[in-house]
Every structure is written in C-alpha cells, then in structure tokens.
C-alpha cells in the first residue's frame, strides 16, 4: 500500500499530524472559530496538545493510514491549518473536516486541501461516501462543503453531544 503520510497540491503540503506539531495544534484548537463551531477541547498547554494528538489523532492514522493532516504552505513552510478524514463515532463512513488559522482563511487553501483529500479518499483509500458535518451557524463551512460537491442530507446529533448539527455527503460517483 502506498504511503499517504504526505499529500501535495500546487501550493500546499498535507502531512499527517505528528507529536512535534503540538504547538501548532495548541494554537489552532484555541482559535475563536474552532471554539465556537467545533468546541473547546480544553487544550491549554503543549502537554495537553501532545496528549490530544496521542489520543485523538495518531490512533486513527495508525489504524487506517489517513486522518488529520497539518496543512503547510509550500512557499514558506508555514503551518496554516488542518484538513483530514475522520472515522467519527455516530457517523457511517468518514467525514471531511478542515480548520485554518484566521490569517489564512478566505484564500482558497481550505478548498484546495479539501478537494485533494477528497480525490485521494475516492481514488486511493477506496472510500465510497464522504460526509461533512458542521454547526448550523457556520455558514463558511457549509459553503465550502457545498463548493466541494457535498449536499445537505439532514440534521443529526452525535453521541455525547447536545447540539444538533448539519450532515452533508457526497458519493464517489457524484464527484
């Protein structure tokens, strides 16, 4: 099987998250939009971020060969966001997720990274359906999911959550 720890686009390198990304994960998970739309993960230190990577990110990438990718801008090697495919409890199959530092939003990076992740999922990971979930108030995320070709399916509530969220999806042959 081919190694998918690194995926490239014209402007970006997507690399599976590693323990040495803890300072970046700490910064990203504490952005206002992450806390508002994804939720406060109580990550307040490098140690917390390292533990989060160990418990929440590495097990899936080790098990499936894909997961959370750090998005790095090629021109200056700056970590600008994350994008990935997640095997999430309460959802069938995998869902695509993305989050970027505020200075890198609105520049097409999320679309570029997400589009490449979806292509890789359909062609190389043999995934047939990709879901996308987002908060009702996250219009930017909804817009990106629709731009990627996902369509709204229904409102759902994930296990151990109270808030109803929106579920989008796309099948391989719709891509």
Task: Describe the protein.
- The protein is of the alpha+beta class and 175 residues long.
- The chain has one domain (6-174): 3-Layer(aba) Sandwich (Aminopeptidase).
- Helices cover 33% and strands 29% of the residues.
- The chain has five helices and eight strands; from the N terminus they run ββαααβββαβαββ.
- The chain has helices at residues 22-29, 32-38, 46-64, 109-123, 139-147, and strands at 6-8, 12-16, 68-73, 78-86, 94-100, 129-135, 151-156, 165-171.
- The protein has an eight-stranded mixed sheet.
- α4 (109-123) links the parallel β5 (94-100) and β6.
- The longest helix has 19 residues, at 46-64.
- The protein is globular and about 35 Å long.
- The mean pLDDT is 94.
Strand content: 25-35%
- CATH class reads Alpha Beta
Strand order of the largest sheet: 1-2-3-4-5-6-8-7
Mean pLDDT: 94
The ordered string of helix (H) and strand (E) elements is EEHHHEEEHEHEE
Q: What structural class do helix, strand and pairing data support?
A: alpha+beta
CATH architecture: 3-Layer(aba) Sandwich
Tell me which oligomeric state these chains represent.
single chain
CATH superfamily: Gcn5-related N-acetyltransferase (GNAT)
The CATH topology label is Aminopeptidase
Helix content: 25-40%
Number of helices: 5
Radius of gyration: 15 Å
């Amino acid at each position: 099987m081919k190694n998918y720890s690194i995926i490239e686009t014209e402007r970006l390198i997507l690399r599976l998250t590693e323990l040495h990304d803890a300072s970046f994960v700490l910064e990203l998970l504490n952005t206002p939009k992450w806390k508002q739309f994804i939720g406060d993960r109580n990550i307040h230190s490098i140690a917390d971020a390292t533990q989060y990577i160990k418990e929440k990110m590495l097990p899936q990438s080790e098990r499936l060969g894909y997961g959370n990718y750090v998005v790095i801008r090629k021109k200056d090697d700056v970590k600008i966001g994350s994008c990935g495919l997640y095997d999430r409890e309460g959802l069938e199959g995998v869902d695509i997720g993305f989050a970027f530092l505020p200075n890198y939003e609105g520049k097409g990076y999320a679309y570029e990274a997400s589009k490449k992740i979806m292509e890789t999922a359909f062609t190389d990971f043999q995934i047939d359906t990709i879901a996308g979930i987002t908060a009702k108030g996250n219009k930017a995320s909804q817009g990106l999911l629709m731009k990627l070709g996902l369509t709204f399916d229904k409102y759902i509530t994930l296990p151990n959550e109270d808030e109803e969220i929106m579920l989008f999806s796309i099948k391989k042959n719709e891509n």
